[in-house]
Design a protein that fits this description.
about 200 residues, mainly alpha, 9 helices
């Protein structure tokens, strides 16, 4: 799927396509959505609401997947994505520091899904997990959409050229993945620190 196709699809289907894309890659879609809000393509409240519920429902799905699969062979699949030490460290940390554990899980790109599932397996209180997740999503998406809007507003006559839009989105992607790499690295360092604390 090319960038031009993705942009054209978003411009055509708007909110219908926004939900599934946000469920797969919420932060990146939030940044791009903020850009489209600045151009008038999206409305702020509907776009933010869709992004929030897409991410929140995804977190709920992973949490209950872990809760239901706690005593099944689900743990065997984790071995491919995260070490047993990581899971053991997070299992104890979920109960003592639910908010920080949720933050780490949402930052740790590449480990996010198994870490979120581990919350359910660790039998964390559902209200506590969902409250933490909701707060983090609101703050995260407010910042990302704000950055996208700021970037979009700084460019004049951008809606007149789809090729120019593609270039700008490409720049946003580079910035996004650079920040994502930094956050993922920070989250994994925090995991190692947690492991040492619990030894």
């Amino acid at each position: 799927m090319t960038l031009d196709f993705l942009l054209s699809a978003l411009l055509t289907y708007k909110y219908v396509l926004l939900f599934p894309l946000a469920a797969v890659e919420g932060p990146l879609v939030a940044l791009i959505s903020g850009f489209f809000v600045s151009t008038g393509t999206f409305e702020l409240i509907p776009a933010f609401s869709i992004l929030f519920f897409a991410d929140f429902l995804t977190d709920m799905f992973y949490f209950f997947l872990g809760r239901k699969g706690r005593n099944s062979s689900l743990m065997k699949r984790f071995e491919k994505r995260m070490t047993y030490q990581h899971f053991s460290a997070m299992e104890g940390y979920w109960k003592s520091h639910a908010f920080l554990a949720t933050l780490i899980s949402k930052w740790a790109y590449g480990l996010s899904t198994p870490l979120l599932i581990s919350a359910g397996i660790a039998d964390v209180s559902a209200p506590r997990f969902f409250f933490s997740s909701g707060i983090i999503i609101v703050v995260q998406y407010s910042v990302l959409m704000g950055l996208g809007m700021y970037f979009g507003n700084s460019i004049q006559r951008i809606s007149d050229s789809i090729s120019l839009v593609s270039i700008i989105i490409a720049v946003i992607l580079i910035v996004f993945f650079s920040v994502s790499f930094f956050l993922a690295r920070s989250a994994k360092q925090m995991l190692k620190k947690i492991e040492k604390e619990l030894k």
